[in-house]
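Please, structure for the following, as tokens.
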Amino acid sequence: MLTNQYPIHNHVLDFIQLIKDTSPKDMTKIFTQGGCYRFHLIMKVVFPEAKPYKVGFCRNSNNLAKKDFLPLHVVSEIGNRYYDINGEFKLNKQRTYNLLAEMTEEDIRQAEKFSFVIKRCI
């Protein structure tokens, strides 16, 4: 039960930890190497307000044209914060990523086709 004493952020982190504790190394690998959109779908079941965001690298930050943006990962926005299998995701603490954007319908269609199985992570 959500209460003011225990904010949504804590519930999200507890849920992520529950999944990760299943097999920390494997869960991290699966949900960071091809299964990140599927992780968002899991989050959305428990937190229906979750929205998918793509994070990636933009070669030219002055020109955010589609051809300049390389999407690399999917995170869930819940309560104005972003999450992935590693907990709260903060763009300003990343070296690999420099841009975050809400996913379009086309992005979602692309992400639905991708899987850690395709990348043969496990």
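The chain has five helices and five strands. The CA atoms of residues 34 and 117 lie 8 Å apart.
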